[in-house]
Design brief:
CATH topology of the largest domain: Methyltransferase, Cobalt-precorrin-4 Transmethylase, Domain 2
Radius of gyration: 23 Å
CATH superfamily of the largest domain: Tetrapyrrole methylase, C-terminal domain
Strand order of the largest sheet: 3-2-4-1-5
Structural class: alpha/beta
Bound molecules: S-adenosylmethionine
Helix content: 40-55%
CATH architecture of the largest domain: 2-Layer Sandwich
Largest sheet: 5 strands, parallel
Oligomer: single chain
C-alpha cells in the first residue's frame, strides 16, 4: 500500500524549519550498524538524527529500495541503497558483516517505522552483536507505540503480539496463548481481517476494552474505542476498512471494569467502611480477580473524592 505522507499547515512547517535550521548537523560518530526508524506516514516525523545518520553512512540497507528512495529523495540524501530483506538476508549477511568489521558505517531501514518490529533485521543485528560490531539505535516512529499512546488503555505493561495467523484455527490458538498475559496486548492486523480478528478476540478474551487505530499520522487517521463486543459488532457490519491497522486490547480483568465500573466502586466503598484501604483492595481483588494494584489505585481515587 503506498504511504500517504500527510502535511502540516504551512505556518506550522515554517516554525519547525526555523527550529531545525538552528540545530547543528551531527556527523555519524563511529563505524557500525545503525538501526534507523523512519516515519509511519507523516514525513515530518523523520528525526534530525535519522537524516544525519542516513546522510553520513557508507550505505543504507533497505527492505524495499523503491520505497526508501522516495524518502531519501524528499530529504536530499544520496547515500547508496542496497536491498536487504528476508529473501536475500542469509546470502548478504557474511559480506555485510565483513564490511562492518572492516570499519564500514551501514544503516538499516524498513519501509516505514522501526526496523525489526514485524520487519527484517533481527538476524543481522544478532550476528553483528555476536561479532562485536557496534550496533546503534536511531529511534523514531513505530505503529506499536503510536497506537498504544492514543488507545486510552493501561500502558504500564504491554505485550506486542505482532501479526496473527491468517487462518481462524491457528489465529484462535495464538490468541489463547496470550489470553492470560497480565498486560495490554498490541496486534498488527490487515484491514481485510480486522472484523474476523475482533470476533475471535471477543470469543477468547471476553468483552475487554479495546481500540482500533487506523492510518496513524496520516490524513485519514481514526481511532475507535469500545469493548471488543462493540468493536466486533461495528466492524462486522461495515465494509473492510482501508489502510493500516493496529488493534490494542486491555489486560485481563479490564472487562469487569469496562462493563461495570460503578459496581466495582460500590464494592470498594463497602469494603473500605469496615477495612483499611490496603485490606479493602485485597478483599475486592480476591472477589473480582482484578489486580490488587488496580483496585488500590481506584480506592485511593475514591478516598480522595469522599469529603
Ligand atoms: N516496523 C513497523 C513499525 O515500527 O511500526 C511495522 C511494520 S509492519 C510490516 C506493518 C504494520 O504496522 C501494518 O500492517 C500495520 O498493522 C502497522 N502500521 C504501520 N504503519 C501504520 C499506521 N500509520 N497506522 C496504523 N498501523 C500502522
Amino acid at each position: 500500500m503506498p504511504t500517504d505522507f500527510a502535511t502540516l499547515p504551512a505556518d506550522r512547517l515554517r516554525a519547525i524549519d526555523k527550529v531545525s535550521a538552528g540545530v547543528e548537523r551531527q556527523p555519524v560518530p563511529a563505524a557500525g550498524l545503525y538501526i534507523v526508524s523512519t516515519p509511519i506516514g507523516n514525513l515530518r516525523d523523520m528525526s534530525l538524527r535519522a537524516i544525519d545518520t542516513l546522510q553520513g553512512v557508507d550505505g543504507i540497507l533497505a527492505e524495499d529500495t523503491r520505497v526508501t528512495s522516495v524518502l531519501l529523495r524528499h530529504f536530499g540524501i544520496r547515500t547508496p541503497l542496497v536491498a536487504y530483506h528476508d529473501h536475500n538476508g542469509a546470502r548478504l549477511r557474511p559480506n555485510l558483516l565483513a564490511r562492518l568489521q572492516a570499519g564500514a558505517k551501514l544503516a538499516l531501514v524498513s519501509d516505514a517505522g522501526t526496523p525489526l518490529i514485524s520487519d527484517p533485521g533481527y538476524k543481522l543485528v544478532s550476528e553483528a552483536r555476536a561479532a562485536g560490531i557496534n550496533v546503534v539505535a536511531v529511534p523514531g516512529a513505530s505503529a506499536v507505540l503510536a497506537a498504544l499512546a492514543v488507545a486510552g488503555l493501561p500502558t504500564d505493561r504491554f505485550c506486542f503480539c505482532g501479526f496473527l495467523p491468517n487462518k481462524p484455527g491457528p489465529r484462535r490458538a495464538e490468541l489463547a496463548t496470550v489470553a492470560k498475559v497480565p498486560a495490554t496486548l498490541v496486534f498488527y492486523e490487515s484491514p481485510r481481517r480486522v472484523a474476523e480478528a475482533l470476533a475471535d478476540m471477543l470469543a477468547i478474551f471476553g468483552p475487554r476494552p479495546a481500540s482500533v487505530a487506523r492510518e496513524l499520522t496520516k490524513h485519514y487517521e481514526t481511532v475507535r474505542a469500545g469493548t471488543l463486543a462493540e468493536l466486533a459488532a461495528q466492524f462486522g457490519e461495515e465494509e473492510a476498512p482501508r489502510g493500516e491497522i493496529v488493534i490494542v486490547v486491555g489486560p485481563p480483568g479490564a472487562e469487569a471494569t469496562a462493563l461495570d465500573a460503578s459496581k466495582l466502586d460500590e464494592a470498594i466503598k463497602a469494603a473500605m467502611t469496615a477495612h483499611s484501604m490496603k485490606d479493602a483492595a485485597e478483599i475486592v481483588s480476591a472477589a473480582t480477580g482484578l489486580p490488587r494494584r488496580q483496585i488500590y489505585a481506584r480506592a485511593l481515587e475514591l478516598g480522595r473524592d469522599t469529603p
